[in-house]
Amino acid sequence: MKKGIIILFAATLGLAACNNYKKGEGDLQYKILKDEGKEKIKEGDFVKLNGIQTVEGSTNADSTLVNTYDNERPAFFPISKSMFKGDLVAALKMLGEGDSASFKLNLDSMAKYSGQPKPAGLKTNYATFTVKIEKVLHKVANEADSTFEKKKREFFEAEYKGLIAKNKANEAAKIKKYIDDNKLEVKSTASGLQYIIEKPGNAERAALTDTVMVDYTGQFTNKKGNGTINVFDTSNEKIAKEAGIHSPMAQYAARPLVLNQLAPGFIEGVQLIGVGGKVKIIIPSKLGYGENGGGPINPFTPLVFDIEIKSIKKGSAAPVAAQPMMPTPAQ
């Protein structure tokens, strides 16, 4: 979905949230935004959807907990039995393929049946889900479970292959757009890494066996629907809070990273600067997570890192082959 359409859809959903919702079963509240008139979802079906989950804070604007548009990764949802009256399953059963809606679900009930605590400091006791049903794989009456499981695997594999093909075809354009939109004057290495040295630091350079203490922020090339940078990891607490990815369990400070355990693009970027240096690097997927992706990273996804080296601790072990890994939040 193009950025303009995403923003327009999000704006429509936001406007809908200001209007009155209808009463559904249990504590469910709903507003149908689009109804294509197709067969409704039922128990046993398998659904591909995009959605946004938000909660309303007592002292600030809505906090986004999930946004599949920002992640560029739709969700696949098996429709099982409802856990409680007015849960997300009950909400989705009101929709069919191509439909979109906004739902409000009771957070106390969600916490009780999911085992996950609800967020603190909320203004209301509801989470808002705004969803668009992309595709539905309906289970035929009396169809054997084994037969439908095979269909689900084939359906998921086909959709995932489509995602991979799209990402592969669009990767170069994503990198170019990020550079153009931010008016960056980058240099390139022979490997394809693009970079801007903001501060060279001292003359020391990290070797593969060294441990570097770095402050960093990793982001995707696409912006979020609200226009902010799309951060997926950072050692900076302020940036983590602004990006909505703050974790009370994380230690926000410079982090020690053994260079030979990281992805080739990250290694190459670190070795461009010395202690005290700062560099922005744009890592193509072939120097990062490649065609398989990992964690929140989709296949064929370029990444952007802002890195500052605080110190270098010399290592003594023989170097090993670099692995396609990136920094992960310290717990």
Automatic annotation (TrEMBL):
<comment type="similarity">
    <text>Belongs to the FKBP-type PPIase family.</text>
</comment>
<feature type="domain" description="PPIase FKBP-type">
    <location>
        <begin position="209"/>
        <end position="313"/>
    </location>
</feature>
<dbReference type="InterPro" id="IPR046357">
    <property type="entry name" value="PPIase_dom_sf"/>
</dbReference>
<keyword id="KW-0413">Isomerase</keyword>
<protein>
    <recommendedName>
        <fullName>peptidylprolyl isomerase</fullName>
        <ecNumber>5.2.1.8</ecNumber>
    </recommendedName>
</protein>
<dbReference type="InterPro" id="IPR001179">
    <property type="entry name" value="PPIase_FKBP_dom"/>
</dbReference>
<dbReference type="Pfam" id="PF00254">
    <property type="entry name" value="FKBP_C"/>
</dbReference>
<keyword id="KW-0697">Rotamase</keyword>
